[in-house]
Structures are given as C-alpha cells and as structure tokens.
Amino acid sequence: MAHRFRSTYGSISLKDLKNIYSGPERVNRIELACQESKLNRKLEKREKMIEEVNKMTFEKRYRKRLNDYVPEFKTYLPKAPAFREADNTQVDEIVGRLYKTQERRPRKSAKSCDSKQSRSSNKLTYSESELNMVYERLHQAETQTFRNRQVFR
C-alpha cells in the first residue's frame, strides 16, 4: 500500500494550496523567463521582417517615383529633365537660361561691416586696429590649439 502514496516533493508542492495561491515556484519562474525570452526573440524576428518589407515597399515606391520603366531596355531610367522630350522652342528657352548671365551683389567683408548693419544681438563697435588684430589672430598659421596638439603627439 505504501507504493500508492509515493510522490515527489515537486508534485506535492505544485498541488499544495499554499503554493497554488502564493504564486509560481522558482522552477516555474525559470520556465516563464525562458518562455519570455523565446517570445522576445520571436517578436524581434517579426519586427525585422516587417522592417524589411517596409524597406522593400519604400524602395519600390522610390523607384517608381524617380524612375521610368523603359521596356526597350527592360530597366528603370531616372526621370531627369535632360532626358525629357522637348521641341525647338523649349530647347531654345533652356539654352537661353543657361547662357544668361546673372549679376550678384559683391560680398561685404567683416572690416567694412558696421555695427548697425550687423545682425548680431551685441551692438558693439570696434576700431579698425581691433578688427585687424582679431583678423590676424584668426588667420594665423600656427594657433595655440595647433601647438597644444603638437605637444601631445
């Protein structure tokens, strides 16, 4: 009769009311952690697949938007203005725009810039000698940073 009541500690603890209502055992927690990690891996794989599909659809849309399919060559060619068909008048307009000279305003140097014309919030005025000194410091061949780098090399 004793063999009928033989049970392991694990089976007893699983069926014990105290353990059932107190939460899963340590073994069950490990199993749950393994299941969660498997689920996370599956979700990561699924997300990668979705990203690949989205990327492919984006590439297809991008290709269709920027390219024309040419059945003669069985390939996509870019929709560039240079490849569009144009009659003589359109060609003359394009050539005229290309040969037309455009005048640009001369740039002002930092020395000639007044504090009133400056867009900076600081309304400081500098003398010509101060501007020259700053200009020379900025355009030195060897700066302090350059010297420091040479020391550490």
What's the story with the biggest beta sheet?
Answer: 2 strands, antiparallel
Count of distinct strands:
2
Measured between the Cα atoms of the first and last residue, the distance is: 87 Å
Order of helices and strands: HHHEEHHH
Q: Poorly predicted ranges (pLDDT <50, ≥5 residues)?
A: none
Shape: flat
Tally of separate helices: 6
For the largest sheet, list the strands in their spatial order.
1-2
> What class do helices, strands and sheet pairing give?
mainly alpha
Region (Disordered): 98-125
Summarize the structure.
With 153 residues, the chain is mainly α. It is built from six helices and two strands; from the N terminus they run H-H-H-E-E-H-H-H.
Features:
two-stranded antiparallel ribbon; flat
Describe what this molecule looks like in 3D.
With 153 residues, the chain is mainly alpha-helical. It is built from 6 helices and 2 strands.
List the helices and strands and how they pair.
Elements: H1 9-15, H2 17-22, H3 26-66, E1 67-70, E2 75-78, H4 88-99, H5 128-138, H6 144-152
Antiparallel strand pairs: 1-2
Region (Disordered): 98-125
